[in-house]
Amino acid sequence: EAQVLLARYRGVMCSVLEDSRLARLQLEGGANLSRLRKEETSVSLSDDYRDAVEVVAGLYDQVDELVHRLVMLSNQRTQELDFIMEFKSLEQGFKEVSDWIEEVGESRLRTLGELEDSLEQLHRKQTLFRDFYTAAY
């Protein structure tokens, strides 16, 4: 489920960040604002013009800040979903080990713990233990 969410989330973020209007605003917005501020015409000298430019500059700064926050939150969410997927993978590995211990390991260890009387039987148990140890790791 986390993998599906991650793929969907990345798709949405790509479509937002690759939106041509946003990309154009990010590329040209600052330069256009700078040009409007430096412009010296009879219209640009009026208080209404300067006020309008400041409102536009404030809106531009807000959009820029919100896009930055969106990217930061997106990166954080992506890391969290990646962590969940990694955790699920580790959890599955632990379950496999636990199942193996319950189904195979415990009974094999129990039989290996019973010492035999002859050296030959002890060597055989030692070999079985080495095989067990290799299978466990």
From TrEMBL:
<protein>
    <submittedName>
        <fullName>Puratrophin-1-like</fullName>
    </submittedName>
</protein>
<dbReference type="InterPro" id="IPR052231">
    <property type="entry name" value="Rho_GEF_signaling-related"/>
</dbReference>
